[in-house]
Inverse folding.
């Protein structure tokens, strides 16, 4: 999505209006307006951080650590 936002912002900076960008990229006017507003507020096209459970890393090291803990508890 940030690629399309970058295209929207680039066209906006080149002087195109919201309606023109909407027609050129075949996206809703609201999408264009939101992308421009986000860029003007944050200076970035990147996705915002999302709330939720953090990603866990399932590595061989973590798997072995859990196995060791389970073995230790069963002794």
């Amino acid at each position: 999505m940030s690629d399309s936002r970058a295209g929207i912002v680039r066209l906006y900076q080149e002087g195109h209006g919201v309606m023109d960008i909407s027609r050129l990229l075949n996206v809703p006017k609201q999408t264009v307006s939101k992308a421009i507003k986000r860029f003007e507020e944050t200076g970035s096209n990147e996705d915002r951080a999302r709330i939720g459970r953090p990603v866990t890393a399932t590595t061989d090291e973590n798997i072995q650590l859990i196995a060791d803990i389970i073995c230790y508890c069963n002794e």
The longest helix spans residues 60-74. The two ends are 52 Å apart (CA to CA). The mean pLDDT is 85.
